[in-house]
Amino acid sequence: MQDDPIRVIDEQLLSDDHAPLKKVTFEQRRSDGAWQRQEREVYANAGGAAVLLFDRARRTVLLTRQFRMGAHLAGQDGFVIEAPAGMLDGTGPEQRVRAESCEETGYRAKQVRKVLAFMPNPSALTEIVHCFLGEYERGDKVAAGGGKAEEGEDIEVLEIDAGEAFAMARDGRIVDAKTIILLQRLQQEM
Ligand SMILES: Nc1nc2c(ncn2[C@@H]2O[C@H](COP(=O)(O)OP(=O)(O)O[C@H]3O[C@H](CO)[C@@H](O)[C@H](O)[C@@H]3O)[C@@H](O)[C@H]2O)c(=O)[nH]1
Ligand SMILES: [Mg+2]
Q1: Ligand with an atom nearest the CA of residue 48
Q2: Quaternary structure per UniProt (predicted)?
Q3: Which residues line ligand 1 (CB under 6 A)?
Q4: What is the ipTM metric for this complex?
């Protein structure tokens, strides 16, 4: 495209284990018309989907707590509180959150609805996370939850008062972006 302000010059594959990490050399036409060459490293990780489940009668939400190496390397203990979520790898977002809800928390979601999608880091990651709100009640527990041990998952299920979860997203006890976004959205809708 003649008017395209971006020209990709080269893509170098730096590593390709769990997902490809690329160094992309490109030129950008600046607002003054001059072309400027730059390099950026981008991790082409899979998209994901997350769901916040709410029990309207008891005013509770279902969250998970699991070890995350990124948080650990950032200097925290690495145990992160999150809404149930998974990577898409071939399945659609709604199917993924229904499956992850059962695998991670043991609860079957009654109904789920997509509220938004966001990119956690549009500079360095290709990842898009599709976010859903849903409802559950006590009788919807159909499995033990806890995640897949053979994949290294050892997930603690937290069923907590929604007001307490909103406070945790405000005061820093919850740092995960998708979880903060979903809690704020649920709070807005209540
Ligand atoms: N070998 C290997 N396996 C990995 C790696 N990263 C993930 N996995 C495997 O992939 C599984 C991913 O579990 P899911 O429940 O599908 O995904 P998730 O990690 O919960 O992803 C969700 O949260 C992430 C963190 O916020 C989001 O980035 C992602 O989009 C999604 O919402 C893990 O259990 C693990 O077995 C890796 O670097 N190496
Ligand atoms: Mg998960």
Answers
A1: 1
A2: Homodimer.
A3: 18, 48, 50, 85-87, 100, 127, 129, 151-153, 176, 178
A4: 0.94
